[in-house]
Amino acid sequence: MSAALQVTAFGLALLSTLFLLLATCTDCWMVNADDSLEVSHKCRGLWRECVTNMQDGVRTCDQYDSILADHPVKIVVTRTLMITADLLAGLALATLVLGLDCITFLKEDPCVKLKMCYGAGVILGAGSILGLIGSVWYAVDVYMERAMLMSHNIFLGVHYDFGWSCWLGMAGSTGCFVASVLLTCCLY
């Protein structure tokens, strides 16, 4: 039972960590959601802004000035939290691989292997919380920006919704949290 639970938690943690990495690297955290006739599709991300022409499919991306330049708080905080979550999830995966019962590393000391799995669960839980805070922070800021424009009756012809990268970050963080719960609460 313990080995099956460990492998299940590892598979979930691996998939969720890949989701977190994809969310951090991709640039579609915020998309335009205009209901009128669109000629382009705009995605804003943590690293750049991309526009795709809907008629010919040409995609152009503008990098943000510099990583050290002044950026909006939502971008800086989300970058920091997502990168930290990625690093913690990667560390947890490495620790979990060494702690799995099916791996021959430290086979003669099962107590240490169990502690490694538990430690991986704690690290994964910390990373999942940081990733969820970063994703939700960005989503709430997008919502507040849209609500502020609507409350002041400012219509710029386009409004933004959450992009697939934002949803991917939330899904990856939630999956890491579930894997953490499996490792910390259900393993003993």
Please give the structural blueprint.
Layout: H1 2-25, E1 30-32, E2 40-44, E3 48-53, E4 59-63, H2 73-99, H3 110-151, E5 160-162, H4 164-184
Antiparallel strand pairs: 1-2, 1-5, 2-3, 3-4
Helix pairs in contact: 1-2, 1-4, 2-3, 3-4
What would you say this structure looks like, in words?
This protein is an alpha+beta fold and 188 residues long. The chain has a single domain, classed as Butyryl-CoA Dehydrogenase, subunit A, domain 3. The chain has 4 helices and 5 strands; from the N terminus they run H-E-E-E-E-H-H-E-H. It is elongated and about 65 Å long. The model has no long low-confidence stretch (mean pLDDT 84). It comes from Gymnorhina tibicen (Australian magpie). This is Claudin. One of its GO terms (molecular function) is structural molecule activity. It is a multi-pass membrane protein.
